Q: What sequence folds into this?
C-alpha cells in the first residue's frame, strides 16, 4: 500500500504487476483448490480416474452451473435471484402439461425455455418496473412459481417423456462428452465474451460499482437489469429442460435447493455479493470444485447431507481466508 | 412517521380480519374462540422466529440459518431427552437457548469481525447446521416413544385458558417489544438500519449491534427448536426444512423493510399471524393445501409492492423537508 500525496488526484500508471496479480488472483487460488481436490480424489478412490467417472461427475454441476453463469451477472449488478429453482419447477411442470396435451420434443423444449423467460421477465418487471428489492421479490416468486407447480401437480408426477427428449439430459455428443457438458462449455464461453469483452459486460460492472454514476453516464440501468433477470430465467428454463430430460419425470419438489447452490457457486467463484466484481472463469472453476467435492465424497459413500457441510464450510472458509490474511498482514505492518 | 407505521399494521390487521370474516360467512365455526386460539397457538413458533428475524433485518442483515439452527438445537435437546429422561425440562429449555445463541453468535462473529456479508455467512451456516443434525443423529429419528412425557406435555398444558406454547410467544413478544422500544440497544438496531454512518457518529458499534441481533435470532431459534420438536414429537434432519424463507416472508408481510431500519414488533407478529390464518383457513374452505405455497408467495409480493410504495413516499417527504430547510 503506497500513500498517494494529498494534493491533486493521481492515477497509477498501471494497476498492478500483471504477473504478480495473476499468481495471487482468486482464480489461481481456485485452480489450486480444484487441483488439490482432484488429486485427493484420485488417491481416495480407485474408481475416480476413469473417463466415464469423470464424465458422470459433470452431471453433478452442469445444470446448476448454467444458472450460476447468469446469476453471476445478476449478482455483479448488485441484485440476486433466489427464484431460479422454482422457475425450474414451474417450467418442468408446464412441460409435463404440454406432454399431456400431446406435444413432442421441439414443443416441449420451447415450452420449458419459454416459461423460464416469462418467469424471469416477471421478476425483472417487479424489480425494475416497480423498483422493489430483488431479494424480497425473488423470495416471493420463489414461493409463487413452485406453488403453482404444486397446485398443478399436487402429489402427482409427470412421466413418459419421449426418448428423443431424454437425449438432452442423457445423451452424449461424442465419446464421453455429454450434451449437458457441451452446452455448458458453449454457454460459459458466450457468457465469458459477453461479460468480459463487450460494452454490455462493462455496463454490468458499472451498475454494480455505482448504479447512480452508471445512470449519469448514460447506462440504461433498469433495462440491463431487466435483461439480466430474463437471461437468468432463460438459463433456468434450459436447466429445466436438461434436468427433466435427465430425470425423466417432473415432481413439484424438483430442483429444490438449487438456488442456494447456484449462489454458492457464484460467491465461491469470487463474485462479490455486494456487486461490482467477479469473473466467469472464477464461476466455472467454482462449479468444477463443487462438482469434484460432491462426486469425490460420493465415491467415498459420504451421504449428500454431509457433503453440504463441506460445501457450506468451503463457502465461508474461502471467503474468510483472504480477509483473515489481509488482517494479519495489516497487523504486522 | 409513527402514524404511518400504525396505519400499516392497521391495514394488515384488517386484512387478517377480512380473511376470518370471509371464511366465517361460509363456515361459522371458524371464528369460534376455541378455533382462533388454536390458530394463534399454531402460529406461536412462527411469530417468535419472525421477531428474531426482524431484529436481524432491522440491521440491514438477514439470517437464513434460523430454521437449520432450530433443527440442530431441536435434535440436540431431543437426543439428550431420549438418553437422559431425568434432566429437568426447564434446564433443557435454558440449554436450547444457550446453544441457539451460540450458533447465532457464530454467524454474528463472522459478520462482525470478518465483515462477510450476512447473506453469504448464513447461506453457509444454513447448510452446515442442517448437515450437523445428520452428523449427530446419524440420520436417525427421535420419535415420540423415545421422548419423556414431561418433554412432550409441557407446552400442551394451559394457564389462564391459554396453552403454554402461546404463553411462550406472548412472553417473547413482550420481551422483544421492551427491548426494541425501551432500551438503547433496541434503538441501536433501528439506528444502524436507518443510517449506519450516522449511527457510528452517535457512538454505536455497528458490528457489535449486528452481532447481538444474530445472537438474539439464534437464541429464539434455539428456544423454538425445543418447542417445535415437542409440538410435532419428531426430531429428524428434515425438521423445518425451507422454513427460513417462511420466516422472512412473515417479516416482509408484516412491513419489515429488507433495506433495514423499518419494522415493528406488532407488524412482525401480524405478518406471521396472517400466514397462520391463511394456512388454517385453506383446508376449512376446501382448498387443497397444495395452494398454500403459491398463496404465501402472492402475499409476499403484494405486501412488498404496498410497502415499497409507502417507503418511497416517506423518502420524498424527507427530501422535500431537507430542500426547504
A:
Amino acid at each position: 500500500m503506497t500513500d498517494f500525496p494529498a494534493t491533486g488526484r493521481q492515477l497509477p500508471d498501471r494497476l498492478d504487476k500483471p504477473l504478480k496479480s495473476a499468481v495471487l488472483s482468486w482464480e489461481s487460488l481456485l485452480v489450486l483448490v480444484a487441483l488439490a481436490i482432484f488429486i485427493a480424489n484420485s488417491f481416495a478412490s480407485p474408481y475416480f480416474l476413469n473417463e466415464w467417472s469423470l464424465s458422470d461427475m459433470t452431471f453433478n454441476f452442469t445444470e446448476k452451473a448454467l444458472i450460476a453463469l447468469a446469476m453471476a451477472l445478476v449478482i455483479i449488478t448488485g441484485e440476486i435471484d433466489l427464484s431460479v429453482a422454482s422457475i425450474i419447477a414451474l417450467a418442468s411442470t408446464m412441460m409435463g402439461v404440454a406432454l399431456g396435451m400431446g406435444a413432442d420434443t421441439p414443443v416441449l423444449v420451447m415450452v420449458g425455455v419459454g416459461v423460464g423467460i416469462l418467469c424471469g421477465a416477471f421478476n425483472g418487471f417487479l424489480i425494475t418496473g416497480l423498483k422493489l428489492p430483488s431479494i424480497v421479490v425473488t423470495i416471493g416468486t420463489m414461493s409463487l412459481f413452485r406453488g403453482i407447480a404444486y397446485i398443478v401437480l399436487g402429489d402427482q408426477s409427470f412421466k413418459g417423456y419421449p426418448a428423443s427428449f431424454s437425449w438432452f439430459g442423457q445423451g452424449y455428443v461424442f465419446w464421453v462428452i455429454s450434451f449437458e457438458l457441451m452446452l455448458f462449455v458453449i454457454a460459459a464461453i458466450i457468457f465469458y465474451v459477453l461479460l468480459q469483452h463487450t460494452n454490455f459486460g462493462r455496463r454490468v460492472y458499472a451498475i454494480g460499482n455505482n448504479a447512480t454514476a452508471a445512470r449519469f453516464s448514460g447506462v440504461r440501468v433498469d433495462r440491463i437489469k431487466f435483461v439480466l433477470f430474463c437471461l437468468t430465467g432463460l438459463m433456468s428454463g434450459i436447466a429445466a429442460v436438461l434436468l427433466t430430460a435427465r430425470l425423466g419425470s417432473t415432481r413439484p419438489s424438483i430442483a429444490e435447493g438449487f438456488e442456494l447452490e447456484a449462489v454458492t457457486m457464484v460467491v465461491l467463484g469470487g463474485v462479490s455479493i455486494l456487486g461490482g466484481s467477479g469473473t466467469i472463469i472464477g464461476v466455472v472453476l467454482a462449479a468444477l470444485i463443487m462438482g469434484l467435492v460432491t462426486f469425490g465424497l460420493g465415491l467415498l459413500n459420504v451421504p449428500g447431507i454431509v457433503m453440504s457441510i463441506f460445501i457450506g464450510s468451503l463457502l465461508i472458509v474461502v471467503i474468510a481466508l483472504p480477509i483473515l490474511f489481509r488482517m494479519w498482514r495489516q497487523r504486522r505492518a | 412517521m409513527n402514524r404511518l407505521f400504525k396505519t400499516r399494521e392497521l391495514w394488515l390487521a384488517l386484512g387478517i380480519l377480512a380473511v376470518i370474516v370471509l371464511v366465517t360467512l361460509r363456515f361459522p365455526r371458524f371464528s369460534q374462540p376455541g378455533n382462533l386460539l388454536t390458530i394463534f397457538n399454531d402460529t406461536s413458533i412462527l411469530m417468535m422466529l419472525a421477531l428474531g428475524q426482524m431484529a436481524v433485518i432491522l440491521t440491514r442483515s438477514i439470517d437464513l440459518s434460523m430454521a437449520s439452527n432450530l433443527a440442530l438445537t431441536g435434535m440436540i435437546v431431543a437426543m439428550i431427552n431420549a438418553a437422559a429422561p431425568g434432566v429437568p425440562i426447564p434446564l433443557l429449555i435454558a440449554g436450547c437457548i444457550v446453544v441457539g445463541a451460540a450458533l447465532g453468535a457464530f454467524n454474528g462473529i463472522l459478520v462482525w469481525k470478518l465483515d462477510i456479508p450476512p447473506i453469504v455467512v448464513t447461506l453457509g451456516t444454513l447448510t452446515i447446521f442442517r448437515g450437523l443434525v445428520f452428523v449427530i443423529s446419524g440420520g436417525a429419528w427421535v420419535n415420540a416413544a423415545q421422548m419423556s412425557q414431561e418433554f412432550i406435555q409441557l407446552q400442551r398444558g394451559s394457564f389462564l385458558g391459554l396453552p403454554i406454547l402461546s404463553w411462550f410467544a406472548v412472553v417473547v413478544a413482550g420481551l422483544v417489544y421492551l427491548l426494541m422500544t425501551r432500551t438503547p440497544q433496541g434503538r441501536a438496531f433501528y439506528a444502524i438500519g436507518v443510517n449506519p454512518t450516522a449511527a457510528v457518529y452517535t457512538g454505536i458499534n455497528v458490528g457489535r449491534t449486528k452481532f447481538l441481533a444474530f445472537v438474539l435470532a439464534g437464541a429464539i431459534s434455539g428456544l423454538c427448536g425445543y418447542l417445535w420438536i415437542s409440538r410435532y414429537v419428531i426430531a429428524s434432519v428434515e425438521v423445518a426444512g425451507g422454513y427460513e424463507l417462511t420466516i422472512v416472508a412473515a417479516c416482509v408481510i408484516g412491513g419489515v423493510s429488507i433495506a433495514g431500519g423499518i419494522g415493528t414488533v406488532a407488524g412482525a407478529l401480524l405478518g406471521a399471524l396472517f400466514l397462520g390464518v391463511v394456512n388454517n383457513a385453506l383446508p376449512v374452505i376446501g382448498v387443497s393445501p397444495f395452494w398454500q405455497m403459491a398463496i404465501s408467495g402472492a402475499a409476499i409480493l403484494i405486501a412488498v409492492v404496498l410497502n415499497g410504495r409507502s417507503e418511497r413516499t416517506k423518502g420524498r417527504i424527507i427530501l422535500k423537508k431537507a430542500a426547504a430547510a
